[in-house]
């Protein structure tokens, strides 16, 4: 496929989604105070961001409420306490993990909710369950996406079969997720082209969620954008699990559509993100995340490395070699 748009053009199909609470919540167990959330909501509204993801719809049967902040569960009232009836152009999103969400109990009809979109997170081997969840949410009146995690580990034949099944479903968008930050722009381009082929066949939008293990989250996002991907995830100051995500300030600064405004993003980072970092909350690129990305591994070992305040990178490299 050829490039879509250029540095001077406006793509009106673009949808920017802020995942700061959801992916960033993996850094601090979702313990954000209400001031942080309200300021983030206002910043996203003022910046022209299209969707704001408030967190997960995790099952309280599986996860102890006493060990996580409320955005692990995203109760309806918790969101309404921040946004009221959300009388803005910003849409509200939540994520529902396959096997970790009691969706038939906890996802109420859209007519009773301030939430606009449910994003179903799945691995490629649980696609049938993901489609079942997405269809249920669609029937409840929500916009839906399916986000296929760890795509860097998937076989091309499995991806094509998965895309065929999702193409025949009711989802609005299918997400390419580089969970391990392992992919390079050339690989992103090839995978995005595959997704877009099925998206065009079935009338689906395609999205990207990138991780920054090799400092390529922004590069990979705009590479996918150039190919025609339209749903773009980002987080404030790259806040997210491990190495973090595509930085919102970079993405908003790059997009040519005048509806997007970088100034509210910068003000939010200045007021809230710097404070979190000063409190000792840690995320972002470091050598250990580079190495797990390079080896196409889940970043859990690098996260443990960080928590243990290790700096023996060469030893860690050898440990990862043993896992191959």
Describe the structure.
The protein is of the alpha/beta class and 324 residues long. It has two domains: 15-278, TIM Barrel (Alpha-Beta Barrel), CATH 3.20.20.70; 287-323, no CATH class. Helices cover 43% and strands 14% of the residues. It is built from 13 helices and eight strands. It has helices at 20-28, 34-47, 76-83, 103-106, 127-139, 156-167, 185-202, 217-227, 248-254, 262-278, 287-294, 300-307, 313-323, and strands at 15-18, 51-56, 91-97, 117-122, 143-148, 173-178, 205-210, 231-234. Strands 1-2-3-4-5-6-7-8 form an eight-stranded parallel β-barrel, surrounded by five helices. Helix 7 packs parallel to helix 8, helix 11 runs antiparallel to helix 12 and helix 11 packs parallel to helix 13 (313-323).
Summarize the helices and strands and which ones pair or pack.
Layout: E1 15-18, H1 20-28, H2 34-47, E2 51-56, H3 76-83, E3 91-97, H4 103-106, E4 117-122, H5 127-139, E5 143-148, H6 156-167, E6 173-178, H7 185-202, E7 205-210, H8 217-227, E8 231-234, H9 248-254, H10 262-278, H11 287-294, H12 300-307, H13 313-323
Parallel strand pairs: 1-2, 1-8, 2-3, 3-4, 4-5, 5-6, 6-7, 7-8
Helix pairs in contact: 2-10, 6-7, 7-8, 11-12, 11-13
């Amino acid at each position: 496929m050829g490039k879509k748009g250029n540095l001077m053009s406006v793509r009106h199909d673009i949808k920017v989604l802020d995942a700061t609470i959801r992916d960033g919540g993996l850094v601090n167990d979702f313990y954000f105070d209400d001031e942080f959330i309200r300021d983030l909501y206002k910043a996203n509204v003022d910046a022209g961001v299209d969707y704001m993801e408030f967190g997960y719809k995790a099952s309280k049967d599986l996860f102890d409420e006493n060990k996580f902040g409320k955005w692990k569960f995203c109760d309806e009232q918790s969101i309404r306490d921040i946004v009221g009836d959300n009388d803005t152009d910003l849409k509200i999103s939540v994520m529902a993990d396959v096997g970790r969400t009691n969706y038939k109990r906890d996802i109420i009809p859209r007519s009773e909710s301030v939430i606009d979109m449910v994003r179903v997170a799945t691995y490629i081997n649980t696609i049938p369950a993901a489609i079942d969840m997405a269809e249920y949410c669609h029937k409840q009146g929500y916009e839906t996406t399916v986000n296929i995690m760890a795509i860097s580990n998937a076989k091309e034949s499995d991806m094509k079969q998965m895309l065929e099944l999702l193409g025949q479903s009711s989802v609005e968008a299918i997400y390419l997720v580089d969970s391990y930050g392992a992919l390079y722009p050339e690989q992103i381009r090839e995978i995005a082209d595959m997704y877009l082929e099925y998206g065009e066949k079935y009338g689906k939008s395609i999205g990207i969620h990138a991780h920054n293990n090799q400092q390529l989250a922004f590069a990979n996002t705009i590479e996918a954008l150039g190919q025609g991907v339209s749903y773009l995830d980002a987080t404030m100051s790259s806040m997210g699990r491990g190495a973090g995500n595509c930085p919102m300030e970079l993405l908003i600064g790059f997009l040519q559509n005048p509806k997007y405004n970088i100034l509210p993003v910068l003000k939010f980072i200045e007021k809230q993100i710097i404070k979190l970092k000063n409190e000792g909350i840690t995320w972002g690129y470091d050598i250990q995340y580079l190495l797990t990305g390079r080896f196409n591994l889940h970043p859990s070992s690098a996260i443990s490395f960080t928590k243990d305040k290790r700096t023996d990178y060469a030893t860690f490299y050898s440990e990862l070699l043993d896992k191959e």
